[in-house]
Design brief:
Number of domains: 2
CATH class of the largest domain: Alpha Beta
Oligomer: single chain
GO molecular function: monoatomic cation transmembrane transporter activity
GO biological process, one term: potassium ion transport
Organism: Vagococcus acidifermentans
Protein name: Potassium transporter Trk
CATH topology of the largest domain: Rossmann fold
Low-confidence stretches: none
Structural class: alpha/beta
CATH architecture of the largest domain: 3-Layer(aba) Sandwich
Number of helices: 9
Bound molecules: adenosine-5'-triphosphate
Helix content: 25-40%
Order of helices and strands: EHEHEHEHEHEHEEEHHEEEEH
Strand content: 25-35%
Shape: elongated
Mean pLDDT: 93
InterPro entries: NAD(P)-bd_dom_sf, RCK_C, RCK_C_sf, RCK_N, Trk_Ktr_HKT_K-transport
């Protein structure tokens, strides 16, 4: 279903969110107070306007509260980012995602009602460090503070050619296999207990961070 998004701030982060949403056929209003930035997105976003988002009257006249989701991607000017988030919240925007510059900024944004706070540099750093220190984890997404969805390559020969049921996967690892990626093309979604696990299968598993780590460590 097509949703409406407003992106405030067209730096690298806001700009890349804008392009990706448009590629997914969503409706995007792009706002920035820098005319050059707006010109860059004129032919990309559904609409692009030069406006100072700190001005409440401007935000109201743009109909910000009618958008399904507002993304506040102002980085350096922390005061502007906080003020705009607060105004969007007060206008009753249903979903607000705000970009934080540091931990304190993130905490303030959460407190004033941003639904999702992203901290791209920190998040990428954590992600990369996990990938560098884990044995077989190709990628992962933190679902919450405690739960992770991870892609783990199967290299433990003890499991090759055995079914999920025979391995007693859920009981032994406390993890759920959401999908198995086999080779470049095959994706087995929600595999049944009689599905066999093959060498180099990529398992998409969900579980606590500890259980995902234990499973990763069980690989050869
Ligand atoms: P990135 O890392 O995503 O490139 P950044 O963290 O360096 O960005 P900034 O460059 O500070 O973030 O801000 C992103 C964009 O937000 C800029 O294009 C800037 O012009 C715009 N911006 C800043 N303040 C406002 C405002 N009050 N109203 C509208 N746009 C704004």
């Amino acid at each position: 279903m097509r949703k409406t998004f407003a992106i405030i701030g067209l730096g690298r982060f806001g700009g890349s969110v804008c392009r990706t949403l448009i590629e997914s056929d969503q409706e995007v209003l792009a706002i920035d107070n820098d005319e050059d930035r707006v010109n860059e997105y004129m032919n990309i976003a559904t609409h692009a306007v030069v406006a100072n988002a700190q001005d409440e009257i401007t935000l109201r006249s743009l109909g910000l509260r009618n958008f399904d989701h507002v993304i506040i991607a102002i980085g350096e000017d922390i005061q502007a980012s906080i003020l705009v988030t607060l105004m969007a919240k007060e206008m009753g925007v249903p979903r607000i995602t705000a970009k934080a510059q540091n931990e304190y900024h993130a905490r303030v944004l959460e407190k004033i009602g941003a639904d999702v706070v992203v901290h791209p540099e920190r998040d990428m750093g954590i992600r990369l460090a996990h990938k560098l220190t884990s044995k077989n984890i190709l990628d992962f997404i933190e679902l919450s503070e405690d739960y992770t969805l991870a892609e783990v390559v199967m290299t433990n020969r003890a499991f090759f050619d055995r079914t999920i049921g025979e391995i007693n996967f859920r009981q032994n690892f406390n993890l759920t296999i959401v999908a198995i990626r086999r080779g470049k093309k095959k994706l087995i979604v929600s595999p049944a207990a009689d599905e066999r696990i093959l060498e180099d299968d990529v398992l998409l598993v969900v579980g606590t961070n500890e259980d995902v780590e234990l499973f990763d460590n069980s690989m050869e």
